[in-house]
Amino acid sequence: MTTSRSSGLKVAIVGCGHGQLDAIYASLEVECLTKGWALSDLDFLVICGDFQAIRNQLDLNCMSVPQRYRKMGDFHKYYSGAAQAPVLTLVIGGNHEASNYLFELYHGGWLAPNIYYLGAAGLVRYGPWRIAGISGIYNRRSYHKPHGERLPYDRDDVKSVYHVRDYDIQRLLLLRNPVDISLSHDWPAWVELFGDHKDLYTTKPHFFASALVDNLGSKPSTDLLNHMHPTYWFSGHMHTRFAASVDFEAGSGMEDALQRLEDVPEKLRAILPQTFSSTRTSSTASKTEFLALDKVGSPTSQWLEVRSLGEHPHNANLETPYVEKTEAGKFHLHYDEEWLAITRACAPALRIADPETLVVKPSNKKRVVSAASVDKQKMWVRENIVREGLLKIPFNFVPHAPPHNPGFIVAPNQQPPEYPNQQTADLYGLLQIPNPFTLSLERAEDTGAAGVIFG
Protein backbone atom coordinates (compact mmCIF):
# COMPACT_ATOMS: atom_id res chain seq x y z
CA MET A 1 0.00 0.00 0.00
CA THR A 2 1.48 3.35 -1.02
CA THR A 3 1.09 6.61 0.86
CA SER A 4 -1.11 9.27 -0.66
CA ARG A 5 0.65 11.97 -2.63
CA SER A 6 -1.15 14.56 -0.49
CA SER A 7 1.33 13.90 2.36
CA GLY A 8 3.83 16.17 0.65
CA LEU A 9 7.31 15.92 -0.79
CA LYS A 10 9.03 12.55 -0.43
CA VAL A 11 12.78 12.61 -0.87
CA ALA A 12 15.86 10.48 -0.35
CA ILE A 13 19.31 11.78 0.56
CA VAL A 14 22.67 10.06 0.05
CA GLY A 15 25.96 11.37 1.40
CA CYS A 16 28.79 10.32 -0.95
CA GLY A 17 27.80 8.15 -3.92
CA HIS A 18 31.26 6.84 -4.92
CA GLY A 19 29.91 5.51 -8.20
CA GLN A 20 27.69 2.85 -6.63
CA LEU A 21 24.39 3.68 -8.28
CA ASP A 22 23.16 0.08 -8.41
CA ALA A 23 23.55 -0.29 -4.64
CA ILE A 24 21.95 3.12 -4.04
CA TYR A 25 18.81 2.38 -6.05
CA ALA A 26 18.49 -1.16 -4.63
CA SER A 27 18.81 0.08 -1.04
CA LEU A 28 16.43 2.92 -1.79
CA GLU A 29 13.72 0.52 -2.89
CA VAL A 30 14.12 -1.54 0.30
CA GLU A 31 14.03 1.58 2.48
CA CYS A 32 10.87 2.79 0.78
CA LEU A 33 9.18 -0.54 1.42
CA THR A 34 9.91 -0.25 5.14
CA LYS A 35 7.95 3.01 5.11
CA GLY A 36 5.06 1.53 3.17
CA TRP A 37 6.03 3.47 0.06
CA ALA A 38 6.72 2.36 -3.46
CA LEU A 39 9.89 3.63 -5.10
CA SER A 40 7.62 5.51 -7.50
CA ASP A 41 6.26 7.53 -4.55
CA LEU A 42 9.58 9.34 -4.23
CA ASP A 43 9.78 12.79 -5.79
CA PHE A 44 13.55 12.75 -6.09
CA LEU A 45 16.85 11.53 -4.69
CA VAL A 46 19.76 13.87 -3.95
CA ILE A 47 23.41 12.74 -3.84
CA CYS A 48 25.72 15.16 -2.04
CA GLY A 49 28.88 14.74 -4.07
CA ASP A 50 31.53 12.18 -5.02
CA PHE A 51 28.94 11.04 -7.53
CA GLN A 52 31.61 9.86 -10.02
CA ALA A 53 29.97 10.27 -13.43
CA ILE A 54 32.58 8.14 -15.16
CA ARG A 55 31.58 7.38 -18.74
CA ASN A 56 34.61 5.33 -19.80
CA GLN A 57 38.20 4.45 -18.90
CA LEU A 58 39.53 7.82 -20.07
CA ASP A 59 37.25 9.73 -17.68
CA LEU A 60 38.68 7.61 -14.88
CA ASN A 61 42.06 9.28 -15.41
CA CYS A 62 40.50 12.70 -14.75
CA MET A 63 39.52 11.76 -11.21
CA SER A 64 41.64 12.82 -8.23
CA VAL A 65 42.09 9.34 -6.78
CA PRO A 66 45.28 7.24 -6.59
CA GLN A 67 45.40 4.98 -9.61
CA ARG A 68 45.13 1.77 -7.60
CA TYR A 69 41.79 2.95 -6.17
CA ARG A 70 40.19 4.01 -9.46
CA LYS A 71 37.08 1.97 -10.28
CA MET A 72 34.64 2.33 -13.15
CA GLY A 73 31.59 2.15 -10.91
CA ASP A 74 28.06 1.90 -12.28
CA PHE A 75 27.41 5.26 -13.92
CA HIS A 76 28.56 4.22 -17.39
CA LYS A 77 25.55 1.88 -17.65
CA TYR A 78 23.16 4.76 -17.00
CA TYR A 79 25.05 6.97 -19.45
CA SER A 80 24.92 4.42 -22.25
CA GLY A 81 21.28 3.52 -21.64
CA ALA A 82 22.00 -0.03 -20.43
CA ALA A 83 20.38 0.97 -17.10
CA GLN A 84 17.79 3.59 -16.19
CA ALA A 85 17.61 5.69 -13.03
CA PRO A 86 14.27 4.69 -11.44
CA VAL A 87 13.81 8.03 -9.68
CA LEU A 88 14.74 11.62 -10.54
CA THR A 89 18.26 12.01 -9.17
CA LEU A 90 19.76 15.43 -8.39
CA VAL A 91 23.51 15.55 -7.77
CA ILE A 92 26.33 17.93 -6.97
CA GLY A 93 30.05 17.35 -7.37
CA GLY A 94 32.59 16.55 -4.69
CA ASN A 95 36.36 16.07 -4.66
CA HIS A 96 36.42 12.60 -6.27
CA GLU A 97 34.79 13.14 -9.65
CA ALA A 98 35.29 12.75 -13.37
CA SER A 99 35.83 16.51 -13.31
CA ASN A 100 36.17 16.77 -17.09
CA TYR A 101 32.54 15.70 -17.59
CA LEU A 102 31.22 17.98 -14.85
CA PHE A 103 33.13 20.91 -16.37
CA GLU A 104 31.29 20.35 -19.66
CA LEU A 105 28.11 21.06 -17.69
CA TYR A 106 29.42 23.98 -15.63
CA HIS A 107 25.91 25.44 -15.37
CA GLY A 108 24.25 22.07 -14.84
CA GLY A 109 22.44 19.59 -17.02
CA TRP A 110 21.53 15.95 -17.52
CA LEU A 111 24.47 13.64 -16.83
CA ALA A 112 22.31 10.74 -18.03
CA PRO A 113 18.56 10.18 -18.41
CA ASN A 114 16.82 11.13 -15.14
CA ILE A 115 20.11 12.17 -13.47
CA TYR A 116 20.53 15.96 -13.24
CA TYR A 117 23.67 17.80 -12.14
CA LEU A 118 23.17 21.21 -10.51
CA GLY A 119 26.45 22.56 -11.87
CA ALA A 120 29.39 24.23 -10.16
CA ALA A 121 26.64 26.25 -8.51
CA GLY A 122 22.99 26.10 -9.37
CA LEU A 123 19.36 26.37 -8.39
CA VAL A 124 16.38 24.55 -9.90
CA ARG A 125 12.67 24.41 -9.20
CA TYR A 126 10.70 21.28 -8.41
CA GLY A 127 7.20 22.68 -8.18
CA PRO A 128 7.29 25.23 -5.35
CA TRP A 129 10.56 23.85 -3.99
CA ARG A 130 13.75 25.76 -4.71
CA ILE A 131 16.82 23.50 -4.56
CA ALA A 132 20.29 25.08 -4.54
CA GLY A 133 23.67 23.38 -4.71
CA ILE A 134 27.37 24.17 -4.60
CA SER A 135 29.81 21.57 -5.97
CA GLY A 136 33.36 20.77 -4.96
CA ILE A 137 35.20 21.52 -1.74
CA TYR A 138 36.71 24.69 -0.30
CA ASN A 139 40.42 25.33 -0.70
CA ARG A 140 41.72 28.69 0.44
CA ARG A 141 44.52 28.86 -2.14
CA SER A 142 42.20 28.24 -5.08
CA TYR A 143 39.17 30.19 -3.92
CA HIS A 144 39.90 33.52 -5.64
CA LYS A 145 41.51 32.00 -8.72
CA PRO A 146 39.87 31.54 -12.12
CA HIS A 147 39.25 28.12 -13.59
CA GLY A 148 42.45 27.74 -15.58
CA GLU A 149 42.03 23.99 -15.94
CA ARG A 150 41.31 22.62 -19.42
CA LEU A 151 42.10 19.16 -20.74
CA PRO A 152 44.55 17.55 -20.56
CA TYR A 153 44.85 18.06 -16.80
CA ASP A 154 48.26 18.03 -15.17
CA ARG A 155 48.93 16.85 -11.62
CA ASP A 156 47.78 20.17 -10.12
CA ASP A 157 44.78 20.68 -12.41
CA VAL A 158 43.19 17.37 -11.49
CA LYS A 159 43.09 18.54 -7.86
CA SER A 160 42.21 22.21 -8.28
CA VAL A 161 39.44 21.77 -10.87
CA TYR A 162 36.96 20.72 -8.15
CA HIS A 163 37.83 23.52 -5.74
CA VAL A 164 35.01 25.98 -5.03
CA ARG A 165 35.53 29.42 -6.57
CA ASP A 166 34.33 32.75 -5.21
CA TYR A 167 32.54 33.40 -8.51
CA ASP A 168 30.04 30.65 -7.74
CA ILE A 169 29.59 31.62 -4.10
CA GLN A 170 29.00 35.25 -5.09
CA ARG A 171 26.32 34.19 -7.54
CA LEU A 172 24.45 32.29 -4.82
CA LEU A 173 24.82 35.25 -2.46
CA LEU A 174 22.80 37.32 -4.95
CA LEU A 175 19.70 35.21 -4.26
CA ARG A 176 16.97 37.14 -2.49
CA ASN A 177 14.04 34.75 -2.66
CA PRO A 178 13.79 31.92 -0.09
CA VAL A 179 15.66 28.65 -0.67
CA ASP A 180 14.09 25.43 0.58
CA ILE A 181 16.87 22.84 0.14
CA SER A 182 20.60 23.47 -0.12
CA LEU A 183 23.26 20.91 -0.99
CA SER A 184 27.01 21.02 -0.45
CA HIS A 185 29.71 18.37 -0.40
CA ASP A 186 31.76 19.64 2.54
CA TRP A 187 29.97 20.93 5.64
CA PRO A 188 29.48 24.61 6.39
CA ALA A 189 32.11 25.64 8.95
CA TRP A 190 30.90 25.64 12.58
CA VAL A 191 27.61 23.91 11.76
CA GLU A 192 28.61 21.03 14.05
CA LEU A 193 28.30 23.38 17.04
CA PHE A 194 24.53 23.35 16.54
CA GLY A 195 24.34 19.58 17.03
CA ASP A 196 25.87 17.08 19.44
CA HIS A 197 29.39 18.32 18.86
CA LYS A 198 30.66 16.81 22.11
CA ASP A 199 29.89 13.32 20.88
CA LEU A 200 31.23 14.15 17.42
CA TYR A 201 34.51 15.47 18.78
CA THR A 202 34.84 12.43 21.07
CA THR A 203 34.22 9.86 18.34
CA LYS A 204 36.12 11.87 15.71
CA PRO A 205 38.96 13.59 17.61
CA HIS A 206 40.60 14.70 14.37
CA PHE A 207 37.47 16.83 13.75
CA PHE A 208 38.13 18.68 17.00
CA ALA A 209 41.80 19.09 16.13
CA SER A 210 40.80 20.64 12.80
CA ALA A 211 38.22 22.88 14.49
CA LEU A 212 40.85 24.19 16.92
CA VAL A 213 42.94 25.49 14.03
CA ASP A 214 39.83 26.86 12.28
CA ASN A 215 40.09 24.32 9.48
CA LEU A 216 36.92 22.24 9.77
CA GLY A 217 34.29 22.78 7.09
CA SER A 218 33.80 25.41 4.43
CA LYS A 219 33.57 29.08 5.37
CA PRO A 220 32.03 30.04 1.99
CA SER A 221 29.26 27.50 2.65
CA THR A 222 28.70 29.13 6.03
CA ASP A 223 28.32 32.46 4.23
CA LEU A 224 25.65 30.82 2.10
CA LEU A 225 23.91 29.31 5.11
CA ASN A 226 23.97 32.72 6.78
CA HIS A 227 22.54 34.38 3.68
CA MET A 228 19.98 31.86 2.48
CA HIS A 229 18.62 30.37 5.73
CA PRO A 230 17.37 27.32 3.79
CA THR A 231 14.87 25.05 5.47
CA TYR A 232 17.11 22.03 4.85
CA TRP A 233 20.84 21.65 4.21
CA PHE A 234 22.31 18.29 3.20
CA SER A 235 26.03 17.40 2.94
CA GLY A 236 28.44 14.48 2.58
CA HIS A 237 32.26 14.42 2.48
CA MET A 238 33.06 13.82 6.17
CA HIS A 239 31.95 10.17 6.09
CA THR A 240 29.82 10.37 9.19
CA ARG A 241 26.12 10.86 9.89
CA PHE A 242 25.46 14.05 11.83
CA ALA A 243 22.41 16.22 12.41
CA ALA A 244 22.15 19.81 13.64
CA SER A 245 19.60 22.60 13.79
CA VAL A 246 20.53 26.25 13.27
CA ASP A 247 17.99 28.69 14.72
CA PHE A 248 17.93 32.17 13.24
CA GLU A 249 16.09 34.79 15.24
CA ALA A 250 14.16 37.47 13.38
CA GLY A 251 16.55 39.93 11.77
CA SER A 252 19.67 38.02 12.81
CA GLY A 253 22.19 35.70 11.24
CA MET A 254 24.92 33.21 12.01
CA GLU A 255 26.95 35.53 14.23
CA ASP A 256 24.05 35.86 16.68
CA ALA A 257 23.17 32.18 16.45
CA LEU A 258 26.76 31.23 17.29
CA GLN A 259 26.97 33.63 20.19
CA ARG A 260 23.76 32.24 21.72
CA LEU A 261 25.25 28.75 21.97
CA GLU A 262 26.10 27.96 25.59
CA ASP A 263 28.26 24.82 25.47
CA VAL A 264 30.93 25.78 22.95
CA PRO A 265 34.45 24.86 24.12
CA GLU A 266 36.24 28.05 25.12
CA LYS A 267 39.14 27.33 22.79
CA LEU A 268 36.67 27.31 19.92
CA ARG A 269 34.64 30.29 21.04
CA ALA A 270 37.73 32.46 20.79
CA ILE A 271 37.99 31.86 17.04
CA LEU A 272 34.31 32.14 16.10
CA PRO A 273 33.57 34.96 13.64
CA GLN A 274 31.83 38.04 14.95
CA THR A 275 30.46 39.24 11.64
CA PHE A 276 29.60 37.84 8.21
CA SER A 277 29.81 39.54 4.86
CA SER A 278 26.21 38.84 3.89
CA THR A 279 23.03 38.24 5.87
CA ARG A 280 19.56 37.92 4.41
CA THR A 281 17.61 39.59 7.18
CA SER A 282 14.05 38.50 7.80
CA SER A 283 11.28 39.81 10.01
CA THR A 284 10.46 36.26 11.08
CA ALA A 285 12.52 33.60 12.81
CA SER A 286 13.69 30.63 10.75
CA LYS A 287 15.45 27.34 11.24
CA THR A 288 17.77 25.28 9.07
CA GLU A 289 17.83 21.53 9.59
CA PHE A 290 21.30 20.23 8.73
CA LEU A 291 21.97 16.58 7.92
CA ALA A 292 25.28 15.07 6.83
CA LEU A 293 25.51 11.47 5.69
CA ASP A 294 28.26 8.88 5.22
CA LYS A 295 29.50 7.23 2.01
CA VAL A 296 27.88 4.24 0.36
CA GLY A 297 29.41 1.07 1.78
CA SER A 298 28.88 1.91 5.44
CA PRO A 299 25.67 0.65 7.14
CA THR A 300 22.70 1.86 5.09
CA SER A 301 21.27 3.96 7.92
CA GLN A 302 24.49 5.99 7.93
CA TRP A 303 24.49 6.97 4.25
CA LEU A 304 20.82 6.92 3.21
CA GLU A 305 17.90 8.95 4.56
CA VAL A 306 14.35 8.63 3.22
CA ARG A 307 11.83 11.13 4.55
CA SER A 308 8.78 13.23 3.85
CA LEU A 309 9.33 16.97 3.94
CA GLY A 310 5.59 17.63 4.07
CA GLU A 311 3.74 20.20 2.02
CA HIS A 312 5.51 23.33 0.87
CA PRO A 313 4.30 26.34 2.94
CA HIS A 314 3.47 28.26 -0.24
CA ASN A 315 2.03 25.36 -2.20
CA ALA A 316 -1.40 26.98 -2.44
CA ASN A 317 0.12 30.06 -4.09
CA LEU A 318 2.36 28.22 -6.51
CA GLU A 319 3.29 30.30 -9.54
CA THR A 320 1.73 29.06 -12.78
CA PRO A 321 4.98 28.35 -14.73
CA TYR A 322 6.05 25.73 -12.18
CA VAL A 323 2.84 23.74 -11.69
CA GLU A 324 3.10 21.41 -14.68
CA LYS A 325 3.32 17.75 -13.71
CA THR A 326 4.30 14.53 -15.43
CA GLU A 327 1.89 11.71 -16.18
CA ALA A 328 3.01 10.11 -12.90
CA GLY A 329 1.84 13.16 -10.97
CA LYS A 330 5.30 14.52 -10.22
CA PHE A 331 6.43 18.07 -10.87
CA HIS A 332 8.59 18.77 -13.90
CA LEU A 333 12.04 20.15 -13.20
CA HIS A 334 12.19 23.86 -14.10
CA TYR A 335 14.76 26.58 -14.39
CA ASP A 336 14.39 29.21 -11.69
CA GLU A 337 13.58 32.70 -12.91
CA GLU A 338 15.80 34.47 -10.40
CA TRP A 339 18.72 32.09 -11.00
CA LEU A 340 18.57 32.58 -14.76
CA ALA A 341 18.73 36.33 -14.20
CA ILE A 342 21.77 35.91 -11.94
CA THR A 343 23.45 33.61 -14.45
CA ARG A 344 22.91 36.13 -17.23
CA ALA A 345 24.05 39.10 -15.12
CA CYS A 346 27.22 37.33 -13.96
CA ALA A 347 28.16 35.67 -17.27
CA PRO A 348 30.70 38.35 -18.36
CA ALA A 349 32.61 37.89 -15.08
CA LEU A 350 33.20 34.16 -15.50
CA ARG A 351 36.93 33.47 -15.68
CA ILE A 352 37.89 30.22 -17.37
CA ALA A 353 40.80 29.28 -19.58
CA ASP A 354 40.29 30.22 -23.21
CA PRO A 355 39.72 26.97 -25.13
CA GLU A 356 42.06 28.12 -27.94
CA THR A 357 45.05 29.44 -26.01
CA LEU A 358 44.38 27.73 -22.64
CA VAL A 359 45.10 31.12 -21.05
CA VAL A 360 42.67 32.88 -18.71
CA LYS A 361 41.67 36.17 -20.25
CA PRO A 362 40.71 39.08 -17.97
CA SER A 363 36.95 39.27 -17.54
CA ASN A 364 35.23 42.30 -19.05
CA LYS A 365 33.10 42.87 -15.98
CA LYS A 366 33.73 43.40 -12.28
CA ARG A 367 33.40 40.24 -10.25
CA VAL A 368 30.71 41.52 -7.87
CA VAL A 369 27.43 42.13 -9.67
CA SER A 370 24.91 44.55 -8.19
CA ALA A 371 21.34 43.70 -7.23
CA ALA A 372 20.23 46.33 -9.74
CA SER A 373 21.97 44.39 -12.53
CA VAL A 374 20.13 41.24 -11.49
CA ASP A 375 16.80 43.12 -11.42
CA LYS A 376 17.44 44.32 -14.95
CA GLN A 377 18.09 40.75 -16.07
CA LYS A 378 14.94 39.54 -14.30
CA MET A 379 12.94 41.78 -16.60
CA TRP A 380 14.73 40.27 -19.59
CA VAL A 381 14.08 36.72 -18.33
CA ARG A 382 10.37 37.43 -17.81
CA GLU A 383 10.05 38.88 -21.28
CA ASN A 384 12.11 36.35 -23.21
CA ILE A 385 11.84 33.10 -21.23
CA VAL A 386 8.88 33.14 -18.83
CA ARG A 387 6.40 34.67 -21.27
CA GLU A 388 7.61 32.33 -24.00
CA GLY A 389 6.94 29.30 -21.79
CA LEU A 390 10.60 28.21 -21.75
CA LEU A 391 11.19 27.63 -18.03
CA LYS A 392 10.77 23.85 -18.11
CA ILE A 393 14.18 22.20 -18.27
CA PRO A 394 14.29 20.30 -21.57
CA PHE A 395 15.47 16.72 -21.71
CA ASN A 396 18.24 17.42 -24.19
CA PHE A 397 20.76 14.84 -23.06
CA VAL A 398 23.07 13.60 -25.81
CA PRO A 399 25.95 11.16 -25.11
CA HIS A 400 29.02 12.87 -26.55
CA ALA A 401 31.70 10.54 -25.20
CA PRO A 402 32.04 6.86 -26.13
CA PRO A 403 30.52 4.49 -23.56
CA HIS A 404 32.65 2.13 -21.51
CA ASN A 405 34.24 -0.69 -23.49
CA PRO A 406 35.97 -3.25 -21.23
CA GLY A 407 38.23 -4.28 -24.10
CA PHE A 408 39.51 -0.76 -24.75
CA ILE A 409 43.12 -0.44 -23.58
CA VAL A 410 44.02 2.89 -21.94
CA ALA A 411 47.48 4.12 -20.93
CA PRO A 412 47.86 4.81 -17.17
CA ASN A 413 47.51 8.59 -17.51
CA GLN A 414 45.78 8.88 -20.88
CA GLN A 415 42.98 11.49 -20.83
CA PRO A 416 39.99 12.09 -23.09
CA PRO A 417 39.47 15.02 -25.46
CA GLU A 418 37.31 17.92 -24.34
CA TYR A 419 33.77 17.55 -25.68
CA PRO A 420 31.66 20.66 -26.32
CA ASN A 421 28.41 19.78 -24.57
CA GLN A 422 25.21 20.60 -26.42
CA GLN A 423 23.28 21.20 -23.19
CA THR A 424 25.66 23.98 -22.22
CA ALA A 425 25.33 25.46 -25.70
CA ASP A 426 21.53 25.26 -25.45
CA LEU A 427 21.51 27.12 -22.12
CA TYR A 428 23.69 29.92 -23.48
CA GLY A 429 21.39 30.04 -26.48
CA LEU A 430 18.35 30.31 -24.20
CA LEU A 431 20.00 33.21 -22.35
CA GLN A 432 21.19 34.73 -25.65
CA ILE A 433 24.75 35.30 -24.44
CA PRO A 434 28.15 34.13 -25.79
CA ASN A 435 29.23 30.62 -24.85
CA PRO A 436 32.81 30.65 -23.46
CA PHE A 437 32.90 26.84 -23.47
CA THR A 438 32.67 26.63 -27.27
CA LEU A 439 35.56 24.93 -29.02
CA SER A 440 36.52 26.11 -32.48
CA LEU A 441 36.59 23.48 -35.21
CA GLU A 442 40.40 23.63 -35.18
CA ARG A 443 40.61 23.13 -31.41
CA ALA A 444 38.01 20.35 -31.53
CA GLU A 445 40.01 18.58 -34.22
CA ASP A 446 43.17 18.96 -32.14
CA THR A 447 41.48 17.32 -29.15
CA GLY A 448 39.76 14.68 -31.26
CA ALA A 449 36.28 15.92 -30.32
CA ALA A 450 35.14 17.32 -33.67
CA GLY A 451 31.89 15.78 -34.78
CA VAL A 452 31.99 13.11 -32.08
CA ILE A 453 28.46 12.06 -31.12
CA PHE A 454 27.77 8.58 -29.82
CA GLY A 455 24.20 7.35 -29.83
TrEMBL record:
Record GO biological process: mRNA splicing, via spliceosome
Gene Ontology MF term list: RNA lariat debranching enzyme activity
SMART domains for this protein: DBR1
InterPro entries recorded: Calcineurin-like_PHP (IPR004843), DBR1_C (IPR007708), Metallo-depent_PP-like (IPR029052)
CC terms in the record's Gene Ontology section: nucleus
Pfam families: DBR1, Metallophos
Coiled-coil features, chain-numbered ranges: none
All copies of domain Lariat debranching enzyme C-terminal, residue ranges: 276-437
Protein name: Lariat debranching enzyme, C-terminal domain-containing protein
